[in-house]
Amino acid sequence: MATPTTTHRSGIVDRIMRDYDAVAARLPDAAVTRAARGRSMHELARLGWPTTRDEQWRYTNLRAFERVAEFAPRVLTPASGDTAALELPPALPGFERLLYIDGVRDVAAARAPTRDTIVPETVWSAEQRLGLLCDMFATDVASLRIRGSSAIEVLFVTSAAAAGAACYPRLQLALEPGSQLQLVERHLGAPEIPTLVCANVAIELGRGAQLTHYRLQQCGVHTVFADTLSAQLTDEASYSVRQVAIGAASARTSAQVQLAGRGAAFSWQAIAVGRAQQVHDTALKVEHRAPDTRTDEVFRGIADEHARIAFSGHIHIAAAAPGADARQSLRGLIEGAGAEIDLRPRLEINTDQVKAQHGATTGALDENLMFYLLARGIDRSTARALLKWAFLGDVLRAIELPQLRSAAEHGAAGQLPDIMAIGALT
Amino acid sequence: MSTDTHPGAGTAAPSALLDIRDLHVKVAGQEVLRGVSLAVGAGEVHAIMGPNGSGKSTLAHVLAGRPGYEIVSGTASFEGRDLLALTPEQRARAGLFLGFQYPVEIPGVNNAYLLKAAVNAARRERGVAELDAFEFLAVVRAKIKLMQIDESFLSRGVNEGFSGGEKKRNEILQMLVLEPKLALLDETDSGLDIDALKVVAHGINTMRAAERAIVLVTHYQRMLDYVVPDYVHVLARGRIARSGDRTLALELEKRGYDWISEQAAA
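^ inputs. structure came back:
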């Protein structure tokens, strides 16, 4: 396909176009149709590459993306099924596992997901434009229609084969009315492999459907990671996200949730723990479009050493959403002298009949709590570790699957070595 | 008890467990303690009373090592050691316990973990073998029963969702488990109904021992009906204005604090 002309071209967009042209003919239609890929490419060209002058991208490590050597995926065909070298986590009891290696389904996986496009093409907003990359380059898709009650784990693993290139995990979910799903979405990667991982997740919840979505981002420390999520909720649907972001050199989450049906409920509980030079940036927008809709948003971030953590939580309550109830609790803990945390709560309310509250605090450990522990004879380093652990506790305890909670706790504690030392993990 | 050169002294200074001499302390540039002297001997129970703002809680927190206070002059020794030179955690491990007026909530750190870590920190300090999980449970179970606390609380976050009374009971439970040499109980009676007060007082009374001292900081005398002190001191305007036995507390109950404050101001 010919590269489109644009008024917002930049060096990186040109490179993306070139990489796309080089690989387009070999990308499978089954993941995304050629026409849809082309539309995404034009949209990216129209929007241009984001800059830190844009409010929604101010804290993203865009340079990390601009340094990516190759945007084209290298792995285009299903993997061999030889997973011995990947050190996969143990299976979750009662969960069906789908395994994607470098963005392509492992052929040995137990179930072949449906191939029909079950979620309509997503229209990404400007703050979600990295989703266009996955639309352009995706090599496969986990496309699932859920009826009844299910428990599914989708593992997206980056292998050595993707080193220096990119992979594009893609997940599409449609929950039929009244269905229930426990979904684990886990991104894993070998620590020494510099790779771009650009994931898209599109979700539709039918009337009364319930989705609990556990998201663990544990990519390797040289990975540049972006995930773009879109969810649509109809009447009485319920969507709960428990997200733990601890991996990658730079990570950006762009999520938009639309509460389009009466009584739809959304809960987002997330932690991000960064150290060294890591950057974790999340932009979450929730739109209340129907009456009696609910949002409960909790974010806890710890930035150690020179890490930077940012969270933008925008809740928009439309005039058509009386009875909406929206809560935001954003807290950041700065642990390193060179660390930075930026929390931006934003409530936009266009109707009178709402309950809304938000709070955002960033700072060091609470001195009152510290003194209480010291006054019990606990040494200072243990007290610090305990309080950091307590800081993350709300969100970690909300992970109801013991095995997954343990994995999340060990992952988070691995970012904060003093916590490992005190043995407070369950 | 001598009140001439060492006002507020309970026993002769050389044998005192806690010996405070002419302690002056500022908070945010304001002198809050203005020459406190007090000696507390092993086996004694002292009550420190006084009107709001007299410096009672400041004294307790300074002794426990809370940051934010400026020691202008004076000394405080604990078993002959310079207490003010120790960090808060060293003071605790040496056997000093502060029961907080407003115990904090620490969700995510469970009570059992905190108690076990605290007990073992003190045992390490004494060169005694640490308790393992089974030994610790055996110790803590008996004390929990005494404080009429449900055992499920051990797995709950520290003071998380506790009522005011439950928090105070938890403070006393911690004291029972830690078995300090000196317990400073800062307004432990505040916010307690009569039943909880009796439970808390019973817990405190079980700690009375020849080798241990207890200092009750309180505004009201009602606690002293249940934990009968050997000595009562009244703190007014940053100094110990008067010391006596428990009849002083009863007199304060009748006359209030104004007359002592006026004397202290004179």
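Chain A has a mean pLDDT of 90. Residues 380-397 of chain A form the longest helix (18 residues).
thumbs up if we can close this ticket
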